[in-house]
Design brief:
The complex is a heterodimer of chains A (281) and B (313). With 281 residues, chain A is of the alpha/beta class. Helix content of chain A is 33%, strand content 15%. The radius of gyration of chain B is 19 Å and the shape is globular. Classes of the chains: A alpha/beta (281), B alpha/beta (313).
């Protein structure tokens, strides 16, 4: 981890801006507050307490891939509205808003890349796009990433951050679980590799499909990795939850992830895995 | 909107009509029901009708997996335990003879009375349940037995130990195993097809749904709590995400709707079982002579292409 950056007193516990929500650059772990460039320089990890802030898909790719190595694929894909879904707002409006705020067409970016000169395929989720939810386009993009990896004979590295299946596409979203599972099976049958990096949060339908099928599964510290979220479990069982319920650390203890890798070590770790799976080729 | 589903149902109707008189007089009843479904579909279910499906799917007298096992399978031998650390009573698995041949059946099981409901955890499986299902599936694959899965689960159990035992991973691996099987796999949703808990045993060559079953990405209550911020708006949520059989057929998620006796399967178990049995047998027939490799490939293609979207909005 990089050297500690001292935080001036007046930055600590900065008052929430819009009366309630803390500023996104205020650390929920220790209350330290940072400028954007300070956080960026430290891969969006709190230099003071090690809390891992969320990372947008583009930034994640910048952190992981060799400079200028990423070539995005299937960027033109957009969801439609198969059910004419309308809750408090129309689905199409939510989609348009998500595209505006994230600058992405959907909650996943895929493309070819290299990490420490090792070629690979990337599939990176964007939590900012409707909670990283998986509808038909996310499923399609992931399946294409598998196919592209198999065709090129390179490993696929997925980085997940998702609240699960997208409710607005109803049962068709649930069908993305078997769809992505089948895509991983095809990839595996072709001799391909899936390296699954679980970032905060990897939950519900994404945890219950491709993310859990990695040949290797690594998680970021403190990431919530649970099929059902803590609030629902608490409401259902009325039991007191363990302090680290559903977190990466708890999953590691129970044998569901191979390693917990702090973000500064993620790139070299994935590169090491890519070298191992390429078997010196 | 209902075009394709209508065509498929009409196709089914004509197929039924052209069948030789093997099934005798009973065929008339089936035809009537299919015609009724067809009318239903053309009319597009109303919000009330959709909610009625939700209520019937959850009807406390609705036949459960073991009610069908009793009526459809001979020499039933139930398999217990996941061979790691437990036996989950919310999911049953076993061997039996279905119309003359050995099959493996897995199915979610709810309880009838308070005591049994508790024992079976209201049909909500733990990872141990999926472990047991996977063991049964592997057995089917090893011996070339067709696999039948009956789905009736409100959702995988949202509990502390369920998470600690790896609920998400268990559901993922059960699907992955189903994608590898070289035997015919037929699924029928017979009540609630609740989210990940349901899809864990539903990656099949043919997916059927009983007339009054529902198949959902999240429970109507859960959806309402998140999107409407009020679980009481479940009716609205159900209307919005259309979990009924007619809509699932229309969306291409299922291959056929299995008729139920009027006013629902709860009213006549034997008749409901007969109709389900016929549908399962008809589905199995399709795979006579198909190689395991082909089945597996076509199964994956089926899920690869469900609900595919055109390139741009």
């Amino acid at each position: 981890m990089s050297e500690r950056i001292d935080v001036s007193i007046e930055h600590k516990h900065a008052a929430p801006e819009d009366g309630g929500r803390p500023h996104p650059n205020t650390c929920p772990g220790c209350g330290s507050h940072y400028r954007d460039d300070e956080l960026e320089a430290n891969l969006r990890v709190c230099p003071h307490c090690g809390h891992h802030f969320p990372v947008h898909a583009r930034d994640r790719i910048r952190q992981l891939a060799d400079e200028d190595s990423f070539a995005e694929e299937a960027a033109e894909l957009r969801s439609d509205d198969p059910l004419g879904f309308f809750d408090l707002r129309p689905y199409t409006e939510r989609l348009a808003e998500a595209e505006l705020t994230t600058g992405l067409g959907e909650a996943m970016m895929i493309g070819r890349a290299a990490i420490e000169d090792q070629p690979c395929q990337l599939a990176v989720m964007e939590f900012g796009f409707m909670g990283g939810s998986m509808g038909r386009i996310v499923g399609e993009k992931f399946a294409r990433a598998c196919e592209s990896a198999a065709e090129r004979g390179v490993p696929l590295v997925s980085v997940t951050a998702s609240g699960g299946a997208r409710m607005q596409e109803g049962i068709l979203s649930l069908m993305q679980l078997p769809k992505t599972v089948c895509a991983v099976e095809d990839l595996h049958d072709s001799g391909g590799t899936l390296i699954s990096v679980m970032a905060h949060p990897t939950t519900a339908g994404v945890l219950a499909s491709f993310a859990s099928l990695g040949d290797v599964i690594v998680a970021e510290p403190g990431a919530l990795l649970s099929f059902t979220g803590p609030r629902v479990v608490q409401q259902t069982t009325r039991e007191k939850l363990p302090e680290d319920f559903g977190l990466a650390e708890s999953n590691f203890r129970h044998g569901h992830v191979d390693q917990i890798v702090p973000r500064p070590e993620l790139r070299p770790t994935v590169a090491r895995l890519l070298r191992l799976f390429s078997n010196g080729a | 909107m209902a075009r394709e589903a209508e065509l498929r149902l009409r196709d089914q109707l004509s197929k039924l009509k052209s069948l030789p008189l093997l099934r005798g007089a009973r065929l008339e009843g089936d035809l009537e029901r299919l015609q009724r479904q067809l009318d239903h579909l053309v009319a597009e279910p109303t919000d009330d009708e959709i909610w009625h499906s939700v209520e019937l799917a959850r009807h406390e007298d609705r036949p459960y997996t073991l009610d069908y096992v009793e009526r459809l399978l001979e020499d039933w031998f139930e398999l217990h335990g996941d061979r790691h650390h437990g036996d989950d009573a919310a999911l049953v698995a076993g061997l039996g003879r279905f119309r003359g041949r050995t099959v493996v059946l897995v199915g979610n099981q709810k309880g009838r009375d308070v005591k049994e409901r508790t024992r079976r955890n209201f049909g909500m499986a733990y990872p141990e349940g999926y472990g047991k299902a996977m063991r049964a599936m592997e057995l089917a694959d090893r011996h070339g037995f067709p696999l039948i899965s009956l789905v009736d689960i409100p959702g995988a159990y949202p509990g502390i130990t369920a998470e600690q035992h790896g609920q998400g991973g268990a559901i993922a691996r059960a699907q992955a195993l189903m994608a590898r099987l070289r035997v015919p796999v037929i699924t029928c949703v017979i009540g609630e097809g609740g989210s990940g808990g349901a899809i864990a045993t539903a990656l099949a060559d043919r997916v059927l749904m009983q007339e009054n079953a529902i198949y959902t990405v999240i429970s109507p209550e859960g959806c309402a709590a998140i999107l409407w911020r009020d679980a009481g708006e479940a009716r609205k949520a159900a209307a919005a995400f259309k979990p009924d059989a007619a809509h699932c057929l229309e969306l291409g998620v299922i291959d056929a709707v299995v008729p139920e006796p009027e006013p629902g399967a709860h009213a006549a178990y034997d008749e409901a079982a007969r109709l389900l049995g016929d549908a399962l047998a008809e589905s199995l027939e399709i795979f006579e002579g198909v190689s395991g490799e082909d089945m597996r490939r076509q199964r994956r293609v089926r899920f690869r292409t469900i609900g595919q979207v055109s390139a741009t909005r």
